Automatic annotation (TrEMBL):
Source organism phylogeny: Eukaryota, Fungi, Dikarya, Ascomycota, Pezizomycotina
Listed SUPFAM superfamilies: Class I glutamine amidotransferase-like
Organism: Podospora aff. communis PSN243
InterPro entries: Class_I_gatase-like, DJ-1/PfpI, INH-QAR
Name of the protein described by the UniProt record: DJ-1/PfpI family protein
A Pfam family this chain is assigned to: DJ-1_PfpI
Superkingdom to which the source organism belongs: Eukaryota
């Protein structure tokens, strides 16, 4: 009996502390969000989460810093790879404007590291500004989040030591070579380990961002955004058919490839 009661109280305490986190957003204090940018960023890694953040900022006190190596235009297409043949055709992509350099970026509550081909170029050129920036800001952050191969930047910064993390399953071998003692999770749409959240490839960042802001700002606000952008989020962080598609070592072969999704906040059935 005693262990049962103890378990009950532990659960109760965990729920309460989760509740405290859920109310962590305080309108009288601005939530300071930063997004890292580099040439060759994956557009949706940035724009997917940003669409949710932009819409939430209409009703919540949020500031946004787009953080590049330098302030100004950050090209969408990646610079050429050092050790790879060029692509058949030049890659086209949208440029984006960094409002801050990493040197003058404001104090941050949430820092998002996106993925993209440009990270490989930075690595080939031994340019460590992103990982150094993450390491220097880690302690002040409420949440450090990555999308896709952005997890490689987290690993390189050293903050994933002893933590669970995931990344794009199509780039698994490349991204997971970085970091020491990282508990890479082969089958996960996203992972949460303390203040570090990481998502799988590109579109998974939208599901993770929804889960994170639902935690921070409540289901009503987060669901309203999902339904406004007409996106049906995956709610199950363990759903990850791309771990099988891309034959990730250790992937959960027993999982269903398909998963039922529907509008956020509604009951639905899939047949
Ligand atoms: C938003 O946060 C800033 C900074 O903490 C604060 O000065 C301002 O009053 C807040 N705005 C509102 C509408 O609460």
């Amino acid at each position: 009996m005693a262990p049962k009661i103890a378990t009950f109280f532990l659960r109760f305490l965990l729920l309460c502390s989760a509740g405290v986190w859920a109310q962590a957003y305080d309108p009288s204090k601005q939530l300071s969000v930063g997004i890292i940018l580099f040439p060759g960023f994956q557009p949706l890694d940035v724009i997917g989460p940003l669409d949710i953040i932009m819409m939430l900022s209409a009703s919540h006190n949020i500031s946004l810093a787009m953080i590049g190596k330098e302030e100004g235009i950050v090209p969408g297409p990646s610079p050429p790879r050092r050790n790879e043949p060029p692509t058949a055709y030049p890659v086209r992509g949208p440029s984006i404007v960094a409002t801050h350099s990493f040197v003058d970026a404001p104090k941050l509550d949430i820092l998002l590291a996106p993925g993209g081909m440009g990270l490989r170029v930075l690595d080939e050129n031994k340019d460590t500004w992103i990982q150094d920036f993450i390491a220097s800001r880690y302690d002040e952050l409420q949440y450090l989040v990555s999308v896709c191969t952005g997890a490689a930047s987290l690993a390189q910064s050293g903050v994933l030591k002893g933590r669970r993390a995931t990344t794009n399953k199509a780039s698994w071998a490349w991204a997971t070579q970085f970091g020491e003692g990282v508990n890479w999770v082969p089958t996960a749409r996203w992972t949460e380990d303390g203040k570090v959240w990481t998502s799988s490839g590109v579109s998974a960042g939208i599901d993770m961002t929804y889960a994170l802001f639902k935690r921070l700002m409540g289901a009503e606000a987060a669901n309203r955004i999902m339904n406004a952008i007409e996106y049906t989020p995956h709610l199950n962080e363990h759903w990850d058919p791309f771990s099988l598609v891309h034959k990730v070592p250790g992937a959960d072969a027993s999982q269903q490839l398909g998963e039922c999704v529907g509008p956020a906040g509604f009951e639905f059935k899939c047949s």
